[in-house]
């Protein structure tokens, strides 16, 4: 773990506020496209062709404006969030009740 | 007739004094005098027609009315109801507020009595100016609390959101003249040099203090705050990566003790009210001890 050194290359500056906004906007547009085309997991190799043909331009824009790690992270997160949301909906449709209190109950 | 009148006025003189108010007495005397003269004014036709002997001593009806009008001490008058509502409401509000305060104080106290604080402790890092910054910098006499956040500058979405929230909270608190010492500690010391952190924090709030240090120092600081982070192990220099870490704001009092956390699901407003109530309930240690020793000490046990 601790063997990482910053001697070889100057550390890259992180995206600033403007860059972040640009990236997030591109991401939102790409995700909107995925939503309208019913694509859940845009990282799934089976879906890649589908993604490319339907939202290719937006995907390129997204990848151009965000750092590579973010591109991957956001797509993973979207899929996780969708799965989670569906699971909650499924539980609720089966009559599960949400907890009557917040886990952090000392608001 | 004259003699009768004088006799009557003598009687009216003595009776009302026993009865009470001197005003009724004087007015009735005047009335009597007016009755003697043939031009009656407002005594009313009733008394004019009746023989004087039948007129009630003290001009009964009139005097009674006056008594009821001028005296406002009645039990269910609207004034009394208003006074009751205002005082009662005020007292209820004050007591509930005070109750909440003591509850928070007791809670903080109980955390304190575990001996060692669960969260927080000594650390030694450097700020963006290269100056050392340790746990001692949290301690001050101005009751200035600190709020600590752990993150990293390459963070994709959570940290920027949370730091924006921190900026909002600081602005809101400033409106109420509450100053906090906001601190950002990086979990990614390899990439986050003091200069990069300084630049990064400019986007959020000018007062945020950015801290970094050697990997070991940062790791130690994170451990004190029970923050866990994982840097990927196989990173090559210059390669991009993300750091997983816990996301909480830690509120520390001006003695450097942990008081509360603010989670991600809390809005800026909720955070502000939490901070305010904690600051409101905070009592410095010297005062706390004095309080326990005083004769009212049993109240705080």
What does this structure look like?
The complex is a heterodimer of chains A (107) and B (301). By secondary structure, chain A is mainly α. The N terminus of chain A is likely disordered. Chain A is 60% helix and 0% strand. Chain A starts with 16 loop residues before the first helix and ends in a 14-residue tail after the last helix. Chain A has one domain. Chain A contains three helices and no strands. By secondary structure, chain B is of the alpha+beta class. Helices cover 48% and strands 12% of the residues of chain B. In chain B, helix 7 links the parallel strand 4 and strand 5. The longest helix of chain B is centred in the first third of the chain and has 35 residues. The N terminus of chain B is likely disordered.
Rg of chain A from C-alpha positions?
A: 19 Å
Query: What is the overall number of helices of chain B?
Result: 10
Specify the helix fraction band of chain A: 55-70%
Number of strands of chain A: 0
- How many angstroms does the end-to-end distance of chain A come to? 37 Å
Count of domain modules of chain A: 1
Q: In CATH, what is the class of the largest domain in chain B?
A: Alpha Beta
Query: Tell me, what's the shape of chain A?
Result: globular
Low-confidence residue ranges of chain B: 1-37
| Measured distance between first and last alpha carbons of chain B | 85 Å
Structural class of chain A: mainly alpha
Strand order of the largest sheet of chain B: 2-1-5-4-3-8-9
Largest interface: A-B, 27 and 29 residues
What is the CATH fold-level name of the largest domain in chain B? Answer: Glutaredoxin
């Amino acid at each position: 773990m601790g063997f990482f050194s910053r001697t070889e290359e100057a550390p890259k500056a992180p995206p600033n506020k403007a860059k972040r906004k640009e990236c997030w906007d591109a991401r939102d547009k790409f995700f909107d496209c995925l939503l309208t085309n019913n694509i859940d997991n845009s990282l799934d190799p089976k879906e890649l062709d589908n993604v490319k043909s339907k939202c290719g331009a937006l995907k390129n824009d997204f990848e151009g404006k965000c750092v590579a790690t973010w591109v991957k992270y956001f797509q993973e997160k979207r899929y996780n969030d969708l799965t989670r949301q569906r699971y909650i909906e499924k539980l609720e449709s089966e009559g599960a009740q949400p907890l009557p209190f917040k886990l952090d109950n000392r608001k | 007739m004259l003699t009768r009148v004088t006799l009557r006025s003598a009687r009216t003189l003595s009776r009302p004094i026993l009865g009470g108010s001197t005003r009724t007495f004087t007015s009735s005397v005047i009335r009597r005098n007016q009755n003697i003269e043939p031009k009656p004014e407002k005594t009313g036709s009733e008394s004019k027609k009746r023989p004087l002997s039948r007129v009630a001593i003290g001009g009964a009806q009139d005097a009674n009315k006056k008594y009821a009008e001028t005296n406002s001490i009645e039990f269910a008058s609207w004034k009394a109801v208003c006074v009751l509502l205002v005082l009662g409401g005020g007292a209820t509000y004050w007591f509930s507020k005070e109750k909440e305060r003591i509850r928070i104080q007791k809670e903080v106290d109980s955390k304190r009595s575990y001996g060692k604080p669960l969260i927080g402790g000594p650390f030694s890092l450097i700020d963006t100016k290269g100056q050392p910054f340790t746990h001692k910098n949290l301690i001050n006499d101005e009751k200035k609390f600190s709020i600590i956040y752990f993150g990293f500058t390459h963070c994709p979405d959570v940290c920027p959101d949370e730091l924006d929230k921190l900026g909002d909270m600081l602005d809101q608190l400033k409106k109420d003249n509450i100053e906090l010492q906001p601190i950002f500690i990086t979990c990614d010391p390899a990439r986050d040099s003091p200069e990069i952190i300084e630049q990064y924090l400019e986007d959020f709030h000018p007062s945020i203090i950015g801290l970094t240090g050697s990997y070991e120092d940062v790791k130690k600081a994170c451990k004190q705050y029970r923050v866990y982070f994982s840097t990927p192990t196989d990173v090559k220099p210059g390669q991009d990566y993300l750091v997983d870490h816990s996301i909480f704001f830690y509120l520390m009092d001006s003695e450097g003790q942990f008081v509360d956390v603010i989670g991600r699901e809390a809005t800026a407003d909720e955070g502000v009210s939490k901070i305010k109530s904690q600051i409101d309930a905070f009592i410095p240690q010297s005062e706390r001890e004095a309080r326990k020793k005083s004769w009212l000490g049993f109240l705080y046990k």
